[in-house]
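Q: Given only this backbone (216 positions), what sequence would you predict?
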């Protein structure tokens, strides 16, 4: 699954078929995927408490190289409670010595949805679609995903996982095309997690006991 302006686009993948749905919030995602063996979530789950960045964010950025800008360091939990971007930057500077970007502040709303869940099932894992697609097709020099070339490369790479002609035939309203491709890439990493063959980047636990890791 991947974030869209009005919620989350969910790709439920089974052999030979993909079902699509746009869910309004994290709780709706869990309800829609309750029968899935694993769920790949493109959002930080475990959060840092202070100055040190999550090891998984640092390692993911190193692996992505020139595409490292697609990884934003997960903000400390206290930053998410700030009501405005200037206030979030003030809190972030106090805790980490660095402000946060406006993009990170806006993503905070979606992070809080998952933070608000009292219980997070073990089948829900954090993924990063750009890492997923590059691991799925390590031989491809990917262009940015919002370009025509980048979209074409990702569709070609995803043929190693699903049949795009079938998977993309009936997309739900409210889902942007690059988000749909990210959701399919995330589902590949979730499938690997369910089979016990996924690569795990980072091995930390936050103050709430939630894992700070990215599954590929």
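A: Predicted residues:
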């Amino acid at each position: 699954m991947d974030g869209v302006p009005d919620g989350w686009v969910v790709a439920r993948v089974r052999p030979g078929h993909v079902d699509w749905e746009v869910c309004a919030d994290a709780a709706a995602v869990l309800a829609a995927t309750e029968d899935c063996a694993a769920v790949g979530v493109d959002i930080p789950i475990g959060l840092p408490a202070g100055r040190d960045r999550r090891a998984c964010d640092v390692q993911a950025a190193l692996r992505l190289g020139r595409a490292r800008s697609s990884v934003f360091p997960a903000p400390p939990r206290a930053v998410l409670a700030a009501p405005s971007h200037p206030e979030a930057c003030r809190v972030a500077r106090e805790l980490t010595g660095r402000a946060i970007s406006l993009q990170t502040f806006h993503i905070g709303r979606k992070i809080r949805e998952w933070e608000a869940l009292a219980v997070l099932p073990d089948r829900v894992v954090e993924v990063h679609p750009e890492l997923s697609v590059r691991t799925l097709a390590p031989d491809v020099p990917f262009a940015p995903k919002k370009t025509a070339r980048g979209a074409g490369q990702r569709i070609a790479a995803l043929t190693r996982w699903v049949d795009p002609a079938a998977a993309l035939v009936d997309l739900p309203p409210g889902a942007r095309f690059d988000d749909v491709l990210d959701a399919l890439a995330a589902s590949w990493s979730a499938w690997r997690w369910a089979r016990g063959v996924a690569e795990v980047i980072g091995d930390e636990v936050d103050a709430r006991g939630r894992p700070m890791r990215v599954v590929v």
